[in-house]
Amino acid sequence: MDERIAEAIRGRLSEGKLRCVDAFRIAEELAVMPLDVGETADELEVRLSRCQLGLFGYGDPKCIVKPAERVAPGLEQAIREGLVGERLPCAEAWVIAARLEIPKLEIANAAEKLGVRISHCQLGAF
Fold it and tell me: Which domain holds residue 34?
């Protein structure tokens, strides 16, 4: 276990959990991969919370993703082009959100409407 990562995680716990946004800040500050932070959190038995795509860690209900009412054609195309197999990797969802300048949760809501599952959490949560 990388003690630098472990120490950073311990310093950022909120109610005993590590928020997704904080995990990514740790990765950036320490110049490590987000997966390294997620794996260290797992070794420390620290649960991840408040996924930036809304997929887990919000209490009850744990997921805040709701199918979008409609999906703009450009967004649908971006999601479909980003699929690996039949799933949209988390990292690709982030890329789409940044490129289209929309919230990450909006990508997850659109994917839900389209029946597309998001996979390969960058922190290793799923």
Answer: 3-49
Selection from 105, 73, 43, 34 nearest residue 26 by Cα = 34
Flag whether 126 is in a domain.
no
Which residue bears the tokens 């940044």?
98
pLDDT tens string, the chain, 126 residues long: the values are 899 999 999 999 999 999 999 999 999 999 999 999 999 999 999 999 999 999 999 988 899 999 999 999 999 999 999 999 999 999 999 999 999 999 999 999 999 999 999 999 999 998
3-class SS of residue 59: coil
d(C-alpha 31, C-alpha 34), whole Å: 9
